[in-house]
Amino acid sequence: MHFKHLTKAQKIGIAIALGLMLIAGLVSAFAERANSADYSDQVALEASKLGERLKDVSLLAEGEDYRGAIAGAYDGLLTPELLAVWQQDPSRALGRTTSSPWPERIEIGTVTKNFDNTYTVLGSVIEVANGVEGPAAIYPVSLTYTERDGSWLLQDATKGSYIALPERRTVDGTYVCLPHRDTEGPQTMECAFGLRAEDGTHYALDFTILRASDIMSNLITGEAVRVEGTFVPVEHLDTSTWAKYAIEGIVRVTSLSPL
């Protein structure tokens, strides 16, 4: 049947149907384009703004002082639902828990778009303190952002445990074979070299950084030396290797000099 043979009502009906199909196609195309848009940079910016305001909220404050502080500091950054949760339960909120150290910023690690068009930011809260060079404490955070009326707001946050920071240490002592914890059992002739500090404690030494140095070739047992480096406590070491030695930990040596 040709279009010219259709009744006026039929022609109108077809025109309306074609119009609806066109509108549906445009809406679908717009939605697909919106879903494919990447707002990672905007979300990362919002997470950075949050990090700058963490120090303004004391989680030890009480009552209206706490609720007012958290509402003021995080204005425009949280969804109303999350703000209500944080105002009710400080243990679930982000902020400062001591006068020192205090949270200075959030270092952004990754920003990932989720299937529901929310974004997940993985990063670290960096805490600082007066007189301390570099971070005083670090803990990881996972932040979920959602879009509300054109703005990206924090919908949920999960705080991880504090991360042990490497400690710089300088130790004076004597280069010796490390003592074994079990002194009553059978002993072997093997010798793991380390340092007996002036207070009697022992440290294993990692010379990886100084491997190519002439210092290593001239080092002999019984020599008094000063070592500087990064200290790792024994509980963080591979127990299968170090458990048998009576040591405080290991120093990854960056500098060694005779006394």
Core attributes:
259 residues, alpha+beta, Nuclear Transport Factor 2, Chain: A, OB fold (Dihydrolipoamide Acetyltransferase, E2P), 5-stranded mixed β-barrel, 4-stranded antiparallel beta sheet, 6 helices, 9 strands, 32% strand
In short:
With 259 residues, this protein is α+β, with helices and mostly antiparallel strands. The protein has helices at 8-36, 40-53, 63-73, 80-88, 214-218, 239-242, and strands at 102-113, 119-128, 137-148, 151-159, 167-177, 193-197, 202-206, 224-233, 249-258. Helix 3 (63-73) packs antiparallel against helix 4.
What can you tell me about this protein's structure?
The protein has three domains: 3-36; 40-159, Nuclear Transport Factor 2, Chain: A; 167-258, Beta Barrel (OB fold (Dihydrolipoamide Acetyltransferase, E2P)), CATH 2.40.50. β2 and β3 (137-148) form a beta hairpin. It is α+β, with helices and mostly antiparallel strands. The N and C termini lie far apart (107 Å). The strands form two sheets. It has a five-stranded mixed beta barrel. It has a four-stranded antiparallel β-sheet with strand order 1-2-3-4, covered by helices on one side. Helix content is 28%, strand content 32%. The model has no long low-confidence stretch (mean pLDDT 82). α3 (63-73) packs antiparallel against α4.
